[in-house]
Amino acid sequence: MAAHNLFLETGYSKTTIADIARRANVTKRTLYSYFPSKITLYIEMYDYYLERYHQVIVDAVRSEMPTREKLLFLMDSLFAFTKDNEKFMRLFWMIDSEEYGGDLSDDLTERIRNWSIENIREARPLVKLAFEEGVIIDIEPEMLIHLISAVNKGIMTHTHKERKFNIAHIDPESLYSQFRHILLRSIFL
């Protein structure tokens, strides 16, 4: 967790193995005996958060409730996860090869790709069922899943900017509530 916290606070490139070892209260040698490189620790952090994100989807999709409520519960749960883990989600949304000296680790790229595919695979049947039951309009499941993710990103990014520059006092919950209301009126039948 020491590495996770440092990566979330300062990013990958500004965090050193010495910083992580110091924060974890271990020697660099001990740290290297468990993790052969800094990128291995970073990938482990991604796996930790993306596995939790995936579990939110699994829990919502497999919950015992009618399809409409289940889909809304999935949306609300993803928003809650995004809000509760905003620092990680910002890293995830803004992942850029520049942060890694120009190249993203193939292992990290593959992990992100696999988690994303698995998330869509898990949520897709629920969206299809919602259409088949007449709960929502005919929309590609992947598009709806990406829309929900994009809106969560936009809400967090926008409200953070608004607070930072003291432009408006819009909180993420209020903005999400408006999005949810619009979605209910436009996509849900």
Question: Strands, helices and their partners?
Answer:
Blueprint: H1 2-10, H2 17-24, H3 28-34, H4 38-61, H5 67-84, H6 86-93, H7 106-132, H8 141-164, H9 172-186
Helix pairs in contact: 4-5, 4-7, 5-7, 5-8, 7-8, 8-9
Can you describe what's shown?
- The chain has 189 residues and is mainly α.
- Helices cover 74% and strands 0% of the residues.
- The chain has nine helices and no strands.
- Helix 4 packs parallel to helix 7.
- The longest helix is centred in the middle third of the chain and has 27 residues, at 106-132.
- The radius of gyration is 19 Å and the shape is globular.
- The N and C termini lie far apart (44 Å).
- The model has no long low-confidence stretch (mean pLDDT 91).
Rg from Cα: 19 Å
The SS-based structural class is: mainly alpha
> Which residues form runs of ≥5 with pLDDT under 50?
none
Structure summary, number of beta strands: 0
Number of helices: 9
What features would you highlight for this structure?
0% strand; single chain; 189 residues; globular; 9 helices; mainly alpha
Summarize this structure briefly.
This protein has 9 helices and no strands.
